[in-house]
Amino acid sequence: MLELRPIRNEADYRAALDEIERLFDAEPNTIECEKPFGHGFAYRLEVLTTLVEAYEQQHYPIAAPEPIEAILYYLESRGLSTHDLEPIIGSLEEVAAILNRQQPLTLEMIRRLNQQLGIPADVLIQPYSLMKNSA
Fold first, then answer.
1. For residues 135 and 131, what is the distance between their CA atoms, to the nearest angstrom?
2. Secondary structure of residue 102 in the 3-state scheme
3. Model pLDDT, residue 29
4. Which strand (E) or helix (H) includes residue 45?
5. Which pLDDT tens digit goes with each residue over 43-60?
6. Cα–Cα dist 27/22, whole Å
């Protein structure tokens, strides 16, 4: 049984992940489900997952999505279509220009996307590449 302690390196991290997997796979009424150190396995699992999460945030940070990908994700995850963006962005042509990266989001569009769809403003204000016009 793994000792509960801070995760300081990749070996500690892998050992903690293995222990979490072992606890997930434990059969009821087995030694894995007993109360080691006076705590049940649910407590042990919670502590290990908290330690792993802290290590991952420090060593494997997840970058915020870029603005257009975030908008597309929010539409898909809520069952919305590009037509639902018209009251927020403007005409269907403007929506297409934004989603096709032909024109940038304006500050007012960012405000409305944040207020009406709940997309975090800090995601929407990030710089992103626009497609070059080939006209």
1. 12
2. coil
3. 58
4. helix 41-59
5. 888 899 999 999 999 999
6. 10
Structure tokens that stand for 37 in this block = 């150190």
CA angle (80, 85, 91) in 5-degree steps: 140
In 3D space, the residue among 3, 4, 11, 18 whose CA is nearest the CA of residue 51 turns out to be 4
The tally of CA atoms less than 13 A away on the side-chain side of residue 67 is: 23
Q: What are phi and psi of 108, to 5 degrees?
A: -65, -40
Domain ranges of the chain: 10-59, 67-124
**pLDDT of amino acid 38:** 45
Q: Which CATH number fits domain 67-124: 2.40.30, 2.160.20, 1.10.110, 1.10.260?
A: 1.10.260
Short-list 56, 29, 58, 32, CA closest to 45: 32
List Cα–Cα distances, 59 to 8, 9, 65, 73, in angstroms. 10, 10, 18, 26
- Residue written as token pair 């042990």: 44
